[in-house]
Amino acid sequence: MASQPGIAVGARVRQLRTDRGLSLSALAAAAGIGKGSLSELESGRRNPTLDTLYALARPLGVPLAALVDFADGAVVADDGFETVLLHTDRTGTATSEVWLLRVSAGVTRSSPAHSPGVVEQLIVLAGSCRVEHGGGSVEVAAGGHAVWPADVPHTYAAGSSGLRAINVIVTPS
User: Fold this and answer.
1) Residue 4: its pLDDT value, please?
2) At 173, is the pLDDT very low, low, confident or very high (cuts 50, 70, 90)?
3) CA–CA dist 26, 32 (Å, integer)
4) Mean pLDDT of all residues in the chain?
5) Spatial contact of 169 and 64, defined as CB atoms under 8 Å apart
6) pTM score, two decimals?
7) CA–CA separation, 85 and 134 (whole Å)
8) CA 118-123-127 angle, 5° bins
9) CB neighbours (10 Å) of residue 34?
């Protein structure tokens, strides 16, 4: 059974899909997920995973925060990886999302390419991680900062003491 936040996310995905004139089959194919899984998510019978939300955001043309209805405090989590939406700022030119990341030691999180022009920044509060993107790689320790184009696949790999960081995602309008 889905949670209340999962039901709200499913309704939001369904609304965005219908607003764009996409069929269930078309969105599922574009996102690379099963039509049955998408149907269960939209109807509130399944909680979305972070992977599923990222997969849906790109073909819907929205930032991840749009799928949680820009609700400060929204939590999206998978095994060993949790994000909490702290703030969203939407202007005529961009949407900026500020997320708190909590990643368990040794956990690697792969993110698909976001929409064209998206940039991410990571400020490490505690622990460390390696960020790989577009053929590049950077190690970031507590107090460190990294910026990269997020319109290419990218990966976060938490160090041996885990990771607590602020992730800022800027998506052009």
Assistant:
1) 60
2) confident
3) 10
4) 90
5) yes
6) 0.84
7) 25
8) 130
9) 11
Angstrom CA distances, 98 to 3, 73, 101, stand at: 24, 11, 10
Query: Domain segments of the chain: what residues?
Result: 4-62, 75-172
- Which CATH fold would you assign to the domain 75-172? Jelly Rolls (2.60.120)
Q: Is the dihedral of CA 63, 66, 70, 76 positive or negative?
A: negative
For domain 4-62, the question of CATH label 1.10.238.10 is answered with no
CA torsion, ordered 122, 128, 132, 136, to nearest 10 deg: 90
Helix H segments across the chain?
4-19, 24-31, 35-42, 50-60, 64-67
What pLDDT score was predicted for residue 167? 96
Residue pair 42/2 in contact by the 8 Å Cβ criterion:
no
Q: 4-62 and 75-172 share one CATH topology?
A: no
DSSP code at position 167: E
